[in-house]
C-alpha cells in the first residue's frame, strides 16, 4: 500500500500547476483510476448496492468506480439496486465516486516528508503533493493555486 501511494504521489506531482477543477475527469481516468483499479472491491466492508446510470446494479461504490474508469459515461444514479427508486435523483458524477475511493484510502496513509511544496487555491502552502491531496479530500473545491506567499 505504501509503495502504491508513493507511486500515486509521484504521478500527481506532474499536475502540480494544473487546476484540478478543470481537469478532474482526465485526472480521474488516468491517475485516480490507476489506483482504484488495483482495489479488490469484493472484500471492502461496503456492501451497499448502488445503481449505475447504465441500469446495472453494482456491489458497492468501489465496483461502480471501477466501471466508471472503464467507461466514463457510467455515473452513480442512486444508492440501492437499480429499479428500487420511484423518483429519479440527480446522478453523481463517476469521477467524484472515484475520488471518494481514493480519499478513503489516503486518509490512512502517512505522507512522506520532503517533496515539492504545493500552493493551494486557498493561499496555503502544503508540504508536498500527498499533504495537498489530503487537504483536497477534505475540501473538494481546493485546487492548485499561484497566490501563496
From TrEMBL:
Residues 1-30 form the signal peptide. InterPro entries: Kazal_dom (IPR002350), Kazal_dom_sf (IPR036058), Prot_Inhib_GrowthFact_Antg (IPR050653). The lineage of its organism: Eukaryota, Metazoa, Spiralia, Lophotrochozoa, Mollusca. The keyword Signal applies. SMART domains: KAZAL. GO terms for biological process: cell differentiation. It holds the Pfam family Kazal_2. This is Kazal-like domain-containing protein. It comes from Dreissena polymorpha (Zebra mussel). The keyword Glycosyltransferase does not apply. It comes from the Eukaryota.
